[in-house]
Specification:
The chain is α+β, with helices and mostly antiparallel strands and about 260 residues long. The protein has three helices and 17 strands. Belongs to the flagella basal body rod proteins family.
Length: about 260
């Protein structure tokens, strides 16, 4: 097979993956706490090109690509998004690099950048999707007001006028962004072997909690659109390379006849 086909096809696959990631960023531009991802590319080494010169290849052999590009990583950027006040006491955001730890299915730890809270069927403070906070904050049935301080202290006022301290929401952080991977629902989890660092909000450098606000995504729509145009042009160039290789193959076949 003509190596140009392999190179062009590898480029098409890589640019298609980059386009999918850009489209996901743009689709989630209004998703609270969403963190944008970026594709990392690397060159495919030309392992067969020199070998072909020294050792002729028999007719019918399938040649490896003489070069090209491939996607080697999908990097997630955890930069701070803008905090948007909502005045809803059940909305919570993090001003900093920390995460709220959640109890996922089968006890798995999931990490959340905040959003809308609710009281689930077990009386625990949980996300809108029903995942309880790892801090297991029990909320009284006769709740009339809920307050969350910057250091995560959760206090409530009952309909009888009693004031109760319910617990404290801690934050966790990681040493490197590569220790986290994205899961469904805008949540993150640790990769195998990584360990979270438990911190106290507003004290240990992981940020502070902000009640009544939502963190917007860190997607810059203009930058994403520019990148999309660059990817589109690269895709078109690779498609043209495949087309020209096909035309050359047709010329070669006609010469043989």
């Amino acid at each position: 097979m003509n190596g140009a086909f392999e190179v062009g096809a590898a480029g098409l696959r890589a640019e298609q993956k980059a386009l999918e990631i850009l489209a996901n960023n743009i689709a989630n531009v209004n998703t609270a706490g969403f963190k944008r991802s970026e594709t990392q590319f690397s060159e495919i080494l030309a392992q067969r090109a020199n070998a072909e010169i020294a050792e002729p290849v028999a007719t019918g052999d399938i040649l490896a690509a003489a070069g090209g590009v491939r996607v080697t990583a999908r990097e997630t950027f955890l930069s701070q998004g803008t905090l948007r006040p909502t005045d809803n006491p059940l909305d919570i955001a993090i001003d900093g690099q920390g995460f709220i730890e959640l109890m996922g299915p089968n006890g798995r730890s999931l990490f959340w950048r905040g959003g809308r809270l609710q009281v689930n069927e077990d009386g625990l403070l949980a996300t809108a999707a029903g995942l309880p906070l790892r801090a297991t904050i029990n909320v009284p049935m006769d709740l009339s007001a809920l307050a969350i301080s910057a250091d995560g202290i959760v206090s409530a006022e009952t309909t009888a006028g009693d004031r109760l301290e319910l617990g404290q929401i801690g934050l966790v952080r990681v040493e490197r962004e590569t220790e986290l991977e994205r899961v469904e629902g805008g949540l993150l989890q640790l990769v195998d072997g990584a360990r979270p660092i438990d911190t106290v909000a507003a004290e240990d450098g992981s940020g502070r909690l902000v009640q009544g606000s939502i963190e917007e995504s860190n997607v810059a729509l203009t930058e994403e659109m520019v990148q999309m145009m660059i990817v589109q042009r690269a895709y078109a160039a690779n498609a043209q390379a495949v087309q020209i290789a096909d035309q050359l193959a047709a010329i070669t076949n006609n010469l043989r006849q």
